[in-house]
Structure formats: C-alpha cells, structure tokens
Amino acid sequence: MPDMKKAVVIGAGIAGLITARMLSDYYEEVCIIERDELPAEPLNRQGVPQSFHPHRVLPRGGLILEHYFPGYNDELITLGAIPSEKEKIVIANRYGTLVNKADAASPFNIASCSRALLEWVLRQRVQNIDHVSFLTSTEVTGLMVSEDQRSITGVFTKERGPDQPIEMLAADMVIDASGRSSKLIRWLDKIGLSVPEPEVLKVSLGYSTRYYNIPFSIQHEWGTVITESDPEEGIRAGMLWRIENDIAGVLLFNAGGNEYPSTDPDEFQKQIKQLFASDEISALTDQLEPLQGPRGYRISESVRQHFELMEHWPSGLLVLGDSFCSFDPIHGQGMTVAAIEAETIGKCLEAQRVHPEPQFERQVLLRMQQEIEPAWWLSSVADLRWQGVEHVGTSQLKGVSFAQKYINLFVKQAMKRSSQENHNHLFFMQFLMNALILPPSEFFKGDVLNMILNDNGSEEEMELRAELGVEDPGLFQQRIDEIIPSFQLEPDARINKILDSLRLAMSK
Ligand SMILES: Cc1cc2nc3c(=O)[nH]c(=O)nc-3n(C[C@H](O)[C@H](O)[C@H](O)COP(=O)(O)OP(=O)(O)OC[C@H]3O[C@@H](n4cnc5c(N)ncnc54)[C@H](O)[C@@H]3O)c2cc1C
C-alpha cells in the first residue's frame, strides 16, 4: 500500500515510465511531467530524437520490465513485434560466421520492435494506474528548495508556448529522468550546489540506420544478423533486424570519430559490403524495398555522473536513466540500466519503510552506482578498442587492456567450439554477461580462466600471460582479482536461477 505522499518524475521516456510505475507502489500520488505532447499512437516524438534508431531490451531489462509490467512482452508480440525465440541468428566476427537457431527453451523471449511501440505499450500501462497523472507539454525549469537548502520540495514548471507563467508544483520526492539533455546540474548550481566532475568516455560515435519494407516472398527466410566490429582493422559493427509491420532495419556503427557511417544511400550500401558477414546482409537487403534514406546519429561522449560523492546531496531528489549515466547505444544498455536503477530505488524505498536511514538519497545513489558498474565497465572496455576513444575523470577504469585481450581470446575459443564441436555454452556465457545477467567477475574465473590461459601457446595467449606479469599458473587467479574490478552486486534470486542453469550446462 502506498504510504508516502507525492512524487514527481521529470520526463516520460523509458526511465520515467518505469520509475513512475515503481513509485506507484510507494506514493499516494505520482505525477510525470513531460515537455512533449504525448502521441495517442506509437509514434516517434521530438523529445526523444534517438527513437528512430534500433532499441533492444537486454534480457536483464526484460526481467525487470516483466516484473513491473507483467505480460508486456506478449502484448508487444500481439501488436506485431517479433518474438526472439526460434529466430535464426547470424553472428559474425573476425573469427568467422555462426548461424544459430535461438533456443526455444531459453529463458528470454525479448520481442523486437520500434522504440515508439515499446514506449507506447509501457505508457498505456502507466496511464491506467489511478494515482499516476501526466502533465504534458510542460517543461520543468528548476528545483524548489527548503529554506535551509537541504531538501528539494518540488519543481518549477512552465507550459510550452510563448509567455507562459512559471508555476510551482510541490512534491516530497523529485526524480529526474529527463535524459541526455537534463538540466539537473544547472538547477543544482542555481541552488548553490556544485557537482563533482563526471567520468567521461570521449567516444565520438556514429550511427546510420535505414529501414526497408520486407516483401512477402522473403519473410520466411528471415533472421537477425549481428556483425561485430574489429576496431584494429577499422571494420564497423552492423546489424540487420526486423520489427513490427514487416519492416527491417540495417544499422552501421563505429566509434572514434574517424569516418562516420554514411547517410548517402549508395555509400551506405557499399559500407554494408565492408562488414563481416556482408554476404548474408547484402543477400537480404538486395531483396528489400528501402522506405527512405539512411539517417545518422552522432554522440560525442558517454557521461557517468558521480553525485554520490557530494557531501550535501539534498533529500527529496534522485536521478536515473541517461541523465545519471549515458552509454554508447551499440551495446543496447541504456533502457536496461534505467530499469536496474528504478528497481534499485524501489528496493531502497522498501527497506526505508522498515528501517528509515538518514541520508537515504545519497545511499540510493551509491547503490545505483554499484549496480551500473558492470554496464559502464563493459561498454568502456569495448569502446576503448577504437583509436581516438578516451576515458577521462578522477575514477580509474581497471583492467581494460587485459580484459580486451581476454575477451578477444574468449570469442575466438567460443567461435571454434561452436563451429567444430557444436558447443554453444561459451557464446551463451558471453551473451549473459553482455545481457547484464552474469557479473563480469564470473567471466574471469575458474574453468573459463584456465581454458583461456591455455590456448596451446597461441600468440593471443602469450600476450595475455605477459599482461598478467606472472608465470606461475597458481598465481593467475590472484593476479586477475587484482586487475579486474570486483563488482559489488546485490544477490538476485531470478539471476541466480539463470546462472545455476548455465553452470549445469557447462559442467556437462
Ligand atoms: C541512437 C541511440 C540508440 C539507442 N539504442 C538503444 C538500445 O538499443 N537499447 C537500449 O537499451 N538503449 C538504447 N539507447 C539509449 C536509450 O534511448 C536511453 O538510455 C533510454 O531511453 C533511457 O533514457 P531516459 O528515459 O533517461 O531518457 P529519454 O528516453 O531520452 O527520455 C527523456 C524524456 O524527458 C523529457 N524531458 C527532457 N527534459 C525535460 C524537462 N526539462 N521537462 C520535462 N520533460 C523533459 C524528454 O522529452 C523525454 O521524453 C539508444 C540511444 C541512442 C542515442
């Protein structure tokens, strides 16, 4: 039963919607303030310019969304989204090409759809909650603060349009979910609070996405193609996938600011041919009917704020989603991380009910940081392979060079075992790590570690051993525990169940 009074959420993007749903368990009244007018149908809107591009939910995000929005995935499928089970998946990288049938027994069935459809389905659910209201076409312009400056007491708002007055909206809790364009730092500055320097990954990434109509005649041959990048060779990543309404998308990506993927249709087609598995993608795209030209998206930085380091973080204020930490979208983490953060806030609110703690909000920020560490670290490790990408900030990123070499060798072994021995457990393990289910520390342990460090004297193995700086195999694990971050994550029964089945499969 809700027992706290009023919460305000800034922004009705994915983070805002999950948060409002979560808060509805604890607050008598929840109000989402959104600067856009919200469309009655699944349509892209101005406030989320990224929505044109593919938006995948990772399995960890899927678990959390099912918890807050039971049956949302089935609802998406009913509306035309493509179920992932039984779909053919082609994965290509520098070590070869693998064709996989998604495992029907897999615990994950994440529907593939447009961001607009996903957002619309979640929004409808939130709109149906009695004590959640939406204030649309209204922008938050600042934070109301108590006289002693220690608590946020609400927000200043302004209806969009000329000459609208500034209004005040009181709340016991304000949660900023206003995305990459958040003004939170400016608002905090206005009330006399300066924030620590964030961690920044200067990533200079480029996307180019093009959509096609899938003719009826080739629908049965369909599959998803994921082609990984090879930054050392300057080879881009690409993806070909299917969404509702018989539409297919092709995405090209690279980081490092060197030669962004093209938005010229002919050049785009040529660049498809430079990908791994270009034959598979070209064979399909040649039969598709383009809906329009490719459209680009560029991001100069991924930013991770460290508000938890502030001595005087005000009570009554929290932040999540892209305004707390934004990611390189190629890893598909943003919405899942927003879900993890919302769930973390929910767990903290639950605990606060039973044992109220002082400095609650700062503790929540700290817990959220711990929970998002795997996502930040994994995407940084991957992005730093591109020349020109740089990490800056006072916090250190541990183990990057070692992890890059280790993951490379892992992928090589996984490809070899999958193609020669029809043994997909290694791929599944890497998939679970990238899905934010398997903690990365598990990837650098025990049997996996022994296998990776015993690659029959290959060049990669030698490089890896040199990076470890020890010869005695008895010291490998100890040395790795020093190199790789320890990742302090809260135990989660759903995740433990999945990991138990992975361990069982690997032991066979
Ligand atoms: C090209 C691209 C592709 C991506 N692909 C994926 C993917 O495959 N998988 C994935 O998980 N993530 C992906 N992401 C990331 C994903 O879009 C975000 O991480 C996710 O939507 C969570 O963002 P958010 O809710 O914090 O912000 P947003 O979704 O950007 O929403 C912010 C909302 O706040 C509103 N707003 C802003 N300022 C104000 C204000 N002052 N007052 C009121 N309202 C305001 C905006 O109008 C908007 O509705 C991608 C991002 C990009 C750029």
TrEMBL record:
Pfam families in the record: FAD_binding_3 (PF01494)
Ranges where the FAD-binding domain occurs: 7-349
InterPro entries reported for this sequence: FAD-bd, FAD/NAD-bd_sf
Keyword Thylakoid: no
Source organism (scientific name): Paenibacillus barcinonensis
GO MF terms held by the record: FAD binding; monooxygenase activity
Name the UniProt record assigns to this protein: 2-polyprenyl-6-methoxyphenol hydroxylase-like FAD-dependent oxidoreductase
Keywords in alphabetical order: Monooxygenase, Oxidoreductase
